[in-house]
Automatic annotation (TrEMBL):
This is citrate synthase (unknown stereospecificity). One of its GO terms (cellular component) is cytosol. Keywords: Acyltransferase, Transferase. Belongs to the citrate synthase family. InterPro entries: Citrate_synth-like_lrg_a-sub (IPR016142), Citrate_synth-like_sm_a-sub (IPR016143), Citrate_synthase (IPR002020), Citrate_synthase_sf (IPR036969), HTH_17 (IPR041657). It comes from the Bacteria.
Length: 434
């Protein structure tokens, strides 16, 4: 078997002893090309070859071949596979933050449901997501001072502004006042994240009750800040809000988390990354799910109307929000702890009774179990929280995961920049391209 023609450059024959070598026949088969094409790749420096002692044959470095094949696949028909991966497809990013599987949801190897039901503090779970270690002693996050008078932001917001929209206005302002926001050694960034999450929980009421913000910031935990900001009178509110926060803390690469990672890959500061995530969350196909569940419960109005409303929606071909999850065909494991919490604290409230009736109507109709969005709305209804509280609770909890993914993306260090596969624009039927 002849070697490829052309002069030998030293780099073409350099390889590490541990690198696997294959024959020319194996190399050509792996690439799906003729040997002449393989030799062309060698002459261009794309594949290293190593003379086999005592023979006239070469061996080829397998890792070079696999790298070249991956490149060719991405440029050919396999691009469709990569494209599909961005639509509920195969994983596209390596991450150690959380795992979603048949066994449920795990944060760094710890069951999210177990952490929530056992009452682990949201702050501890955030530290676990950020560092990989669950603190042995309870985490104590300092209470930050308001960056500016809450009334100043309230003046800019129409009364009744949803809490998530208010937080979306708050975060860039906090970033603008942090002159060191681009300084991101991990410990400094974690300290910045602790302050930011404390602010998120305390400012949820700024549009309607700015006077509560400072009091909420002085509470010792994120859950207690939320309870104070929303002025709930339910004694167990901090405990149950903490449970919800833990269950929402991360969920792999959902839309908002992926958005935060894309921003982080450009070296955007932490505030910008969370602002991007909040923007993605604002879409009705993501964070708006809780709002649609709230609207459904308002439409039902009374427990005895649940079966009728569900039946009519299904008859008209309309979706019933808050049910089914593509990653959990057997039911979202985060939902039962929230439903149980709602029923345990105030089962007699109209919101809980209506939600329970909807659950029963959907079960009787043979539809999928409820998602976490339904559980959040049921719990916030039990606690008497304002409209929009479910989506807000999701956002504040998920902020812990956003930070974790930002830190991980920075550690990985590469820019997230997928390629587009160009397709010719469609033309009207019977029309011709100009």
């Amino acid at each position: 078997m002849s070697r490829p023609k052309g002069g030998r450059s030293q780099s073409r024959f350099d390889h590490r002893p541990e690198e696997e070598l294959v024959t020319a026949a194996q190399a050509a088969a792996l690439l799906g090309v003729k040997r002449a094409t393989l030799y062309t790749y060698v002459s261009r420096g794309l594949v290293r070859c190593v003379p086999e002692r005592g023979t006239k044959e070469n061996r080829y470095v397998r890792s070079d071949l696999e790298r070249l094949k991956a490149r060719h696949d991405a440029r050919a028909g396999h691009a469709a596979v990569a494209s599909g991966a961005l639509r509920w497809g195969e994983p596209v990013i390596d991450s150690s933050v959380s795992r979603v599987g048949a066994e449920g949801l795990a944060y760094r190897g710890h069951s999210a449901v177990t952490l929530a039901v056992e009452g682990r503090a949201f702050e501890d779970v955030a530290e676990l997501l950020w560092t990989g270690t669950l603190p042995e002693e309870a985490s104590r996050w300092p209470s930050p001072e308001p960056a500016f008078p809450p009334s100043e932001l309230a003046k800019l917001l129409p009364r009744g502004t949803p809490p998530v929209a208010a937080l979306s206005a708050l975060v860039p302002l906090l970033g603008a006042r942090d002159s060191a926001r681009f300084a991101s050694p991990p410990e400094q960034e974690r300290a910045r994240a602790r302050r930011l999450l404390r602010h998120l929980s305390a400012w949820v009421c700024v549009a309607n009750a700015p006077g509560r913000v400072t009091h909420a910031l002085n509470e010792p935990t994120v859950a207690q800040s939320l309870a104070r900001a929303w002025n709930t009178r339910v004694k167990r509110a901090p405990e149950l809000l903490n449970r919800a926060l833990v269950l929402c803390a991360d969920h792999e690469l959902n839309v908002s988390t992926f958005t935060a990672r894309v921003a982080a890959s450009s070296s955007a500061d932490l505030y910008a990354c969370l602002s991007a995530a909040l923007a993605a969350l604002s879409g009705p196909k993501h964070g708006g799910a809780c709002d649609r569940v709230e609207a459904l419960l308002v439409e039902v109005g009374r427990p005895e109307r649940a079966a009728e409303v569900i039946r009519e929606r299904l008859r008209r071909g309309e979706a019933v929000p808050g049910f089914g999850h593509q990653l959990y065909p057997d039911g979202d494991p985060r939902t039962p702890p929230l439903v149980e919490a709602a029923r345990s604290v105030r089962p007699e409230t109209p919101n809980v009774r209506i939600a329970s009736a909807v659950l029963e109507a959907m079960r009787a109709a043979g539809h999928p179990p409820p998602s976490v969005d339904f559980g959040l709305v049921m719990l916030t209804g039990a606690l008497g929280l304002p409209s929009g509280a479910g989506a807000t609770l999701f956002a504040v909890g998920r902020a812990a995961g956003w930070v974790a993914h930002v830190l991980e993306q920075r550690e990985q260090g590469h820019l997230l920049r997928p390629r587009a596969r160009y397709v010719e624009p469609a033309h009207p039927a019977g029309g011709r391209a100009p």
